[in-house]
Amino acid sequence: MPARSTRPVDSLDDDDYPAYTMGRAAAMLGTTPAFLRSLDEHRLITPLRSEGGHRRYSRYQLRIAARARELVDAGTPVQSACRIVILEDQLEEAQRINEELRAQAQRRTSA
User: Which positions fall inside the HTH merR-type domain (predicted)?
Assistant: First the structure.
């Protein structure tokens, strides 16, 4: 894996860079700061903190929060929505690993 550059522009491409304040994140999602705090309380997303202690969110975290909001808007309780999103993420990761293992096995049998 190539070493990450420390140029400021690189953080613009980093999905994990905590670029958004709570207010901006809430506005982008069309929700309230309280909703974002509830996702933190249910351990769906854990925003990084600025030196002043303010929550900062990454694009990746905002995508997760948006999925949770979709579920909540459809009538799912917040706690259940958080669990669903966590399970969806775990399933996606397991499927990715499974595909990698299948590809490795395929390469070994065709070699």
Answer: 19-87
- 12-50: per-residue pLDDT in tens? 678 889 889 999 999 999 999 999 999 999 999 999 998
Output the pTM of the full model.
0.78
The continuous run of DSSP H or E covering 57 comes out as strand 55-57
In 10 A of CB 4, how many CB atoms?
Answer: 9
Q: Are 18 and 57 in contact (CB under 8 A)?
A: yes
Q: Which CATH class is domain 15-110?
A: mainly alpha
Q: Taking the domains of the chain in order of start, what are their residue ranges?
A: 15-110
What contacts 36, CB < 8 A, 6 or more positions away? 22, 25, 26, 29, 45, 47, 55, 57, 65
